[in-house]
Amino acid sequence: MRNAIQIGRLIATSDNAAAIGEKPQDVVSAPDKLTAYLTARVTFIEQLAANALPSHIILANFSGDAAWARYVAGIQQVFAETGLNCPQIDGSTESNMPTLQSGLSITMLGEQQTRTATEYEQLSWYTYGLPLVGNEILAQPEDVAQLQPIFEAWKEGIVQQVWPVGSKGLQVEFTRLFGEQQVKSSLDIEKSAGPCAVVLLGIQPEKEQLAQKKFPRNFEKLRKTAL
User: Fold this and answer.
1) pLDDT band at 227 (very low <50, low <70, confident <90, very high)
2) CB of 57 within 8 A of CB of 106?
3) For residues 176 and 125, what is the distance between their CA atoms, to the nearest angstrom?
4) Do residues 87 and 56 make contact, with C-beta atoms less than 8 angstroms apart?
5) pLDDT band at 119 (very low <50, low <70, confident <90, very high)
6) CA 174 to chain centroid
7) Strands 103-112 and 52-61
8) The dihedral of CA 144, 147, 149, 155: what is its sign?
9) Are residue 147 and residue 91 in the same domain, yes or no?
10) How far is CA 189 from the centre of its chain?
């Protein structure tokens, strides 16, 4: 499992954001709702990567009481896009000490789903989205891997495996997935992909044409060769 921890029968995934939000000293100025949405989106995609769906959500809010409702709205947007009921959101707010910059952390606990297991080597792998970070995310939202088609294709079995790409970039994830194989892509494989602006998708070869219809934009097949 990528960046997921198994706790009994539950899968735990987590992501956080700092210095991104509505406070004057934030490095990236963005609505709190959007910041929470992108953070929750990463955490949700990590659940899919572990073949799980969230059943519990824990929010740690370091931005003050006023931000809580905006953060909750951003989390709820993730579930509205997927058509799932949003689990109850619990957690706490740092309200004793005012902070100069925004900060939040989102943890999801999920239940693993029954799915057909397929070896990574037997799948065709694609990149979906472009590597973007910081203000690029705000300027090019259409180039960020979209959650709705990812979840629909995962649910329908078109996508067999989801593998998010974050701040370490594509090359690190290529090494995790494919070991010593050489992987070629037209994307900048060293650049940060921020909050999973790029997602790697493992697709059954016989379903590649269906996948092309699901992902008409920024969807590119990887070329792999042995070293």
Assistant:
1) low
2) yes
3) 14
4) yes
5) confident
6) 17
7) antiparallel
8) positive
9) no
10) 17
Tokens (6 digits) for 46: 């990590």
Q: How confident is the model at residue 221 (pLDDT cuts 50, 70, 90)?
A: very high
Whole-model pTM over 0.90? yes
CATH number at residue 93: 3.30.1330.10
- Boundaries of domain holding 180: 120-225
For the chain, what is the domain count?
Answer: 2
Token pair belonging to 83: 């058509």
Report the CATH number that the domain containing residue 216 is assigned in CATH.
3.90.650.10
Other C-beta atoms closer than 10 Å to the C-beta of 206 total: 8
Instruction: Select from 89, 47, 96, 44 the least CA-distant residue to 71.
Output: 89
**176 and 148, same structural domain?**
yes
What separation in angstroms does the CA of 158 have from each of 60, 117, 122, 223?
Answer: 34, 13, 14, 20
Which tokens is 23 given? Answer: 């406070």
Contact 158, 211 (CB under 8 A): yes
